[in-house]
């Protein structure tokens, strides 16, 4: 009887080792092919972002955020910006975050201090995401940048105003500043005389939506 119990115990041990081995084999993490979609929980929301990591990425490489416009999405701007091709050439990581849907319009957006229409903490989300990626991929804290199209350009201004410790320079394409940022974007850490050396602004003078605002922004930062 005693030998039978010992035999059963030995058999159970063998089975448990066999199961652990099979579990380990089944849990092998497959190699990621970039671009790849990830999610990050932030303020109770499951936020989507797409990463592109070139094969030639080195330690302390730059990180560039590319922000889509109002009603658009991160996949669209990834395709038409062609930033992945530039990342391949120069060796930096690209992050394409996805904006949330606005409660009033149902359209995707970035809350660039557009306080009348949104309460989403996008500035905090993008800042926290940048810090997370810097740590996970050993990216450069000194060379993390933001750029965007239209509403994404608005958001780039907001990051330059509020999160300059993380985002060292910005670029805006057909995007201006929100009214709140226009009135409040004055910081010791990112003053106007220095700001003009840390941003790229691209406008179309025939733009019927932003022509006047674009000129005022350029004048305010002493670029015109």
What does this structure look like?
The chain has helices spanning 2-26, 74-81, 83-90, 122-137, 151-162, 179-184, 192-195, 211-220; strands at residues 36-42, 45-52, 63-67, 93-97, 100-101, 108-109, 144-149, 169-173, 199-202. It is of the alpha/beta class and 224 residues long. It has a single domain (32-220), classed as Rossmann fold (3-Layer(aba) Sandwich), CATH 3.40.50.1820. Helix 4 (122-137) packs across helix 5.
What is this structure, in a nutshell?
This protein is of the alpha/beta class.
Identify the notable features of this structure and list them briefly.
single chain, 224 residues, Rossmann fold, 7-stranded mixed β-sheet, two-stranded antiparallel sheet, disordered C terminus
Compile the SSE list and pairings.
Elements: H1 2-26, E1 36-42, E2 45-52, E3 63-67, H2 74-81, H3 83-90, E4 93-97, E5 100-101, E6 108-109, H4 122-137, E7 144-149, H5 151-162, E8 169-173, H6 179-184, H7 192-195, E9 199-202, H8 211-220
Parallel strand pairs: 3-4, 3-7, 7-8, 8-9
Antiparallel strand pairs: 1-2, 2-4, 5-6
Which regions contain 5 or more consecutive residues with pLDDT less than 50? Answer: 17-25, 188-195, 203-207, 218-224
The CATH topology comes to Rossmann fold
Q: Major sheet: order of its strands?
A: 1-2-4-3-7-8-9
Give the number of domains: 1
N- to C-terminal distance: 96 Å
Q: Helix segment count?
A: 8
Regarding quaternary structure, how should these chains be classified? Answer: single chain
CATH architecture: 3-Layer(aba) Sandwich
Question: SSE string, helix = H, strand = E?
Answer: HEEEHHEEEHEHEHHEH
Number of strands: 9
Integer average pLDDT? 80
CATH superfamily: Alpha/Beta hydrolase fold, catalytic domain
CATH structural class: Alpha Beta
């Amino acid at each position: 009887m005693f030998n039978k119990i010992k035999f059963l115990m030995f058999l159970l041990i063998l089975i448990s080792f066999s199961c652990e081995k099979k579990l380990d084999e089944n849990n092998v993490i497959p190699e990621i092919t970039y671009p790849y979609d990830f999610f990050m929980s932030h303020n109770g929301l499951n936020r989507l972002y797409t990463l592109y990591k070139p094969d030639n990425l080195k330690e302390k490489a730059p990180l560039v955020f590319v922000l889509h416009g109002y009603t658009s999405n991160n996949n669209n701007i990834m395709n038409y910006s062609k930033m992945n091709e530039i990342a391949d050439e120069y060796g930096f990581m690209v992050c394409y975050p996805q904006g949330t849907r606005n409660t009033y319009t149902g359209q995707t957006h970035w809350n660039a201090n557009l306080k009348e229409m949104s309460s989403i903490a996008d500035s905090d989300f993008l800042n926290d995401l940048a810090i997370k990626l810097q740590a996970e991929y050993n990216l450069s804290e000194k060379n993390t940048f933001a750029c965007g199209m239209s509403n994404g350009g608005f958001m780039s201004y907001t990051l330059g105003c509020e999160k300059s410790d993380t985002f060292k320079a910005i670029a805006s394409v057909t995007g201006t500043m929100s009214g709140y940022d226009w009135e409040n974007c004055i910081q010791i850490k990112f003053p106007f005389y220095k700001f003009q050396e840390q941003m790229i602004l691209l406008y179309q003078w025939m733009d019927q939506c932003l022509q006047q605002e674009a000129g005022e922004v350029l004048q305010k930062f002493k670029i015109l």
